[in-house]
Amino acid sequence: xxxxxxxxxxxxxxxxxxxxxxxxxxxxxxxxxxxxxxxxxxxxxxxxxxxxxxxxxxxxxxxxxxxxxxxxxxxxxxxxxx
Length: 82
Prior knowledge:
The chain has one domain (2-80). The chain is built from three helices and no strands. The protein has helices at residues 2-27, 32-53, 65-80. It is globular and about 45 Å long. The chain starts with a helix and ends with a helix.
């Protein structure tokens, strides 16, 4: 039981990180789908790479709430079906 709960929590955390990276990439005008899929596949390594690379791109404009919510939903799908 504890293993199942731990797995669900880790998947949700991974989905949140993937959604954050994808949303931040979209706001900075970067290829958000590539960063989202990369983060879904390589979690921590892609997050570290994004945090290093993102400083080079200024924020253009934040996505609308609906767009951000859809990106987070897509990120969860990427993580759970990965």
